[in-house]
Design goal:
single chain; alpha/beta; 6-stranded parallel sheet; 6-stranded mixed sheet; 15 helices
């Protein structure tokens, strides 16, 4: 006898509970109209027999697949190299698991993948989508909207006009950047450089705005655009040292960028923080605590952002909760002092 044949059937559960097959189907597939005593008898029979409901049959009743797509608008080489994504996925996974939902991970290597992702979402395989790391010219939001899939975005969408139908979770990027630069200025640093993230992403643009709000009309040579990666930050740090060798502080747009900046400063004989103070953004512990010296940084709760994204989407999918009860969530940031500044 095969494993499939030996699995308990709906009829076996009905016989054990002493009810009809239709009653068992309504209970295990989430239907209504069954009296509570019968529900308890069916649940007990399910537990005793180890019956596992058929997901296809369950979907016909509930109109739900209990599966959520997580769409990251980055190539896999970036996703698996950056701990930010692991933290956010962990938060999402914990929340989905707690509500018995499956996570389906979709990555975009290039433009051809956008159409593939849109087709998958439109195909009715998942109940909704969590989308993050968007770039300003990314066609994904329009494609997803065309697929008609309920969506929550990670990070403020660059095309958001503040209407309530855009649901997103973000951190106070601008405020966190202001706090970082104010710390450096409070330490007496006057030539504070900034290594940005990719400026076609709102998080990087907001952090640059926060820097400028404190620095005012500072020397534009103190700003170098990068891409949130250590390698990109190393190139940016070398540019900054070539332009302004007298710089005495660096605010990096994320911790990975700060780690790249630290390596270049050390290679150029600059002591941190004595010669150049350095502040990052994220507070990703594997990076911040193991940097040399340990990194002063702006903490955002990345895992909690993922958890809230999933929670908001599940609430939107729950017919008992009105859409207007969800909306944008912006989490506060905090400055964490370590040895680099």
């Amino acid at each position: 006898m095969t494993e499939t044949a030996s699995r308990p059937t709906l009829e076996a559960v009905a016989a054990r509970a002493g009810v009809s097959r239709a009653t068992v189907s309504r209970v295990v597939n989430g239907g209504d109209g069954v009296r509570e005593p019968l529900v308890e008898r069916v649940r007990q029979a399910v537990e005793e027999l180890g019956y596992v409901p058929n997901q296809a049959a369950r979907s016909l009743v509930t109109k739900r697949h209990d599966a959520i797509a997580v769409v990251i608008a980055e190539p896999e080489t970036r996703v698996f190299a950056d701990p930010f994504f692991a933290l956010q996925l962990r938060g999402i996974s914990k929340e989905l698991t707690a509500h018995d939902n499956q996570l389906v991970l979709l990555l975009t290597e290039g433009r051809d993948d956008h159409a593939r992702v849109a087709r998958y979402l439109a195909g009715g395989h998942v109940d909704g989508a969590l989308v993050f790391s968007l770039h300003l010219d990314d066609p994904l939001p329009g494609l997803i909207q065309g697929a008609g899939v309920p969506t929550v975005f990670g990070g403020r969408p660059g095309w958001s006009d503040g209407t309530r139908d855009v649901v997103y979770v973000d951190s106070d990027n601008r405020g966190g950047a202001r706090e970082a630069v104010r710390l450096l200025a409070g330490l007496g640093r006057t030539r504070i450089a900034h290594i940005t993230g990719p400026l076609d992403q709102t998080s990087a643009a907001d952090r640059l705005d926060g820097y400028r709000e404190v620095m005012g009309d500072s020397d534009p040579r103190l700003v170098a655009e990068s891409d949130f990666t250590p390698g990109g930050a190393e190139r940016a740090m070398r540019e900054l040292l070539a332009r302004r060798p007298d710089l005495d502080a660096v605010f990096a747009a994320n911790d990975l960028a700060a780690s790249g900046a630290l390596r270049v400063l050390r290679a150029h004989g600059r002591r941190v923080p004595e010669d150049v103070a350095v502040v990052g953004f994220d507070d990703m512990l594997p990076v911040a605590e193991q940097s040399d010296p340990p990194l002063t940084t702006v903490r955002q709760d990345i895992e909690e952002m993922g958890r809230i994204m999933a929670r908001l989407l599940l609430r939107r999918l729950d017919r008992r909760v009105a859409d207007e009860e969800t909306g944008a969530v912006v989490l506060p940031t905090t400055l964490v002092r370590r040895a680099s500044a």
